[in-house]
Design brief:
The chain has 106 residues and is an all-alpha fold. It contains six helices and no strands. The chain has a domain of 73 residues. It is elongated, with a radius of gyration of 21 Å.
């Protein structure tokens, strides 16, 4: 009888745990969402375009580096603004816009 109670308690515990899974760190996109990484790197290292390379936009990353060199760093504000935009979008919206549709700028 005690073993049956343990098994049913264990099953009930697993069921309850599955119902209350934390959703803040769960992605519906197979873990491919790079929102936080791209956003933080855009804010701190946007002038060198590192956030573009993280998202797979190599051409745009090189353009960002070139613009920063030509404008003596003033074009680095673009990366800062993009980092803020990335972090303010919802996870789903960010994933659809920048990783599925491949929108390279803003």
């Amino acid at each position: 009888m005690s073993e049956e109670n343990n098994n049913s308690f264990e099953a009930e515990t697993k069921k309850t745990a599955n119902e209350f899974k934390e959703s803040w760190n769960q992605t519906t996109n197979n873990g491919d969402n790079k929102k936080i990484l791209a956003g933080v790197l855009g804010i701190f290292f946007g002038q060198i375009g590192i956030h573009k390379f993280i998202l797979g936009y190599n051409k745009e990353g090189f353009i960002q580096i070139l613009l920063t060199i030509i404008t003596c760093g003033i074009a680095g504000i673009i990366g800062f603004i993009e980092g803020i935009i990335y972090l303010t979008k919802s996870d789903e919206d960010f994933y659809n816009t920048y990783q599925v549709e491949k929108r390279p700028w803003f």
